[in-house]
Specification:
The complex is a heterodimer of chains A (about 110) and B (about 110). Chain A is built from no helices and twelve strands. With about 110 residues, chain A is mainly beta. In chain B, strands 2, 4, 5, 6, 9, 10 and 11 form a seven-stranded mixed sheet that branches. A four-stranded antiparallel sheet of chain B has the order 1-3-8-7, with no helix packed on it. The mean pLDDT of chain B is about 95. The chains are: A mainly beta (about 110), B mainly beta (about 110).
Chain lengths: ~110, ~110
């Protein structure tokens, strides 16, 4: 069965610093990969997705993610973090069916 | 115009009661879902429906009964509520399966006392 691991429960970065959130998946083939963001009291919003092709994908709000097949990873990055980026971030996978599985989430704190 | 809307936003009730959560999407999507988010923010799929047909039932207790009267609606009825049912319940929809991103409602926070 597929699984998703986000090794970092929480991360703190300074405003203006770069960010990388880690995600590893377990699946025999390449799944469909997603990153979502959840602000307090809100539902999840899609940041970006990877299906095939270029392994570096661009998303909304200045985020990007890189798919590395050899490492079964799909890490999320942002060159310069803004205070408004403080939220919970979820990596998710789908293997083609009706079931999307989410990682445990990484809480991002941004300090001034 | 809210894409995926669920009501109520908050629900506080006592153990043993029966309650319902309603969800509607105006995106024209074929697939709808219920997810449960626990106090540690872990998201677990409960049900998925495609064109009103139940596709996934993730070993959820049969006290939980989803109903999809049409493609745009997916309601969740919970009987004999237990303390462990306290969580945030999210409704979501997608165009179809697999590579279709999920569109989430803002959640219903259920507290069972």
């Amino acid at each position: 069965a597929q699984s998703v691991t986000q090794p970092d429960i929480h991360i703190t970065v300074s405003e203006g610093a770069s960010l990388e959130l880690r995600c590893n998946y377990s699946y025999g083939a390449t799944p469909y990969l997603f990153w979502y963001v959840q602000s307090p009291g809100q539902g999840l919003q899609l940041l970006l997705k990877y299906f095939s092709g270029d392994t570096l994908v661009q998303g909304i709000k200045g985020f990007e993610a890189e798919f590395k097949r050899s490492q079964s990873s799909f890490n999320l990055r942002k060159p310069s973090v803004h205070w408004s980026d403080a939220a919970e971030y979820f990596c998710a996978v789908n293997t083609g069916g009706f079931k999307t599985i989410f990682g445990a989430g990484t809480r991002l704190f941004v300090k001034a | 115009d809210t894409a995926v809307s669920q009501t109520p936003k908050y629900l506080v009730t006592q153990m043993g009661n029966d309650k319902s959560i309603k969800c509607e999407q105006n995106l024209g999507h074929d697939t709808m879902y219920w997810y449960k988010q626990d106090s540690k923010k872990f998201l677990k799929i409960m049900f998925s429906y495609n064109n009103k047909e139940l596709i996934i039932n993730e070993t959820v207790p049969n006290r939980f009964s989803p109903k999809s009267p049409d493609k745009a609606h997916l309601n969740l009825h919970i009987n004999s509520l237990e303390l462990g049912d306290s969580a945030v319940y999210f409704c979501a929809s997608s165009i179809d399966r697999g590579n279709s991103p999920l569109h989430f409602g803002n959640g219903t926070r259920l507290t069972v006392t």
